[in-house]
Amino acid sequence: xxxxxxxxxxxxxxxxxxxxxxxxxxxxxxxxxxxxxxxxxxxxxxxxxxxxxxxxxxxxxxxxxxxxxxxxxxxxxxxxxxxxxxxxxxxxxxxxxxxxxxxxxxxxxxxxxxxxxxxxxxxxxxxxxxxxxxxxxxxxxxxxxxxxxxxxxxxxxxxxxxxxxxxxxxxxxxxxxxxxxxxxxxxxxxxxxxxxxxxxxxxxxxxxxxxxxxxxxxxxxxxxxxxxxxxxxxxxxxxxxxxxx
Length: 245
Description:
Elements: E1 2-8, H1 16-26, E2 32-38, H2 45-51, E3 55-60, E4 74-75, H3 77-82, E5 87-91, E6 94-98, H4 101-113, E7 120-123, H5 127-138, E8 143-147, E9 155-156, H6 162-167, E10 170-173, E11 199-202, H7 211-218, E12 222-224, H8 227-241
Parallel strand pairs: 1-2, 1-3, 4-6, 7-8, 7-10, 8-9, 10-11, 11-12
Antiparallel strand pairs: 3-5, 5-6
Helix pairs in contact: 4-5, 4-8
C-alpha cells in the first residue's frame, strides 16, 4: 500500500484527507491511502515514518511548517528560500522538504491582480505567511506583515491605523483565525477602512465565508477563500511525491 498523510496540530479542520480520498477513488488508484497524523511534537516525525510502512509523502500544516525543516535530510531550494516546508517526499528512507504553498498562492493571486500592483498587508507571520510574502516579492508588490509581535512583523495589530488599511488594497489573512471550529474569531483590523477597491484573500477554507471575508464583502470588497489555493498545492504535492529523483 502507498500511504500519504498530513502532520500538524490540531487536524480537525483538515481538507486534505477528503480531497485525496476522493482523488484516489476518482482516478481508481487502488492501494492508496491518505490519513491525518496529529503529532504532539514535531520531533515525533521520525517515529511516524519508522512506524508507518509504505509512507511515501506528507503534507505539513500549522504549527510545523518551519520547525520541521531541521528534521529533514534535504530541503528544495524554493522551500529554503521561503523558509517553510509544507510537503515532504519520503524516498529510500530520506525526508526531502518542498513548498507547494507558493504555487497554490500564485494561482490564487495572479488572476485577481489583472496587471496591477496594489500595496498589500499580510496578516500573520507563520509558515503560510512566508509563502505569501515570497509570491508578493516575486510579483513586485510592496507589503507589510502584521503580527501580534513586532519581532515577527512590520506592524502589530494595535499599530495598524485605518489609513494604512485604506491604502493597502490587497489584504491576505494567513492566520488560522476564523477556522472551524473557532469560526467567531477574526483578525482585528480596521474594517471601516475597507471599500470596493479592496481584495481580501483568506487562506482559511473552512468555513467558506469567514468573518474576515464577510466583513470585507459587507464593505463591497472582492473576497476569495483558500479553497483554490489548497487544491493547487495538493496537486503540486502529488506531482512531487510521484516524480522521479
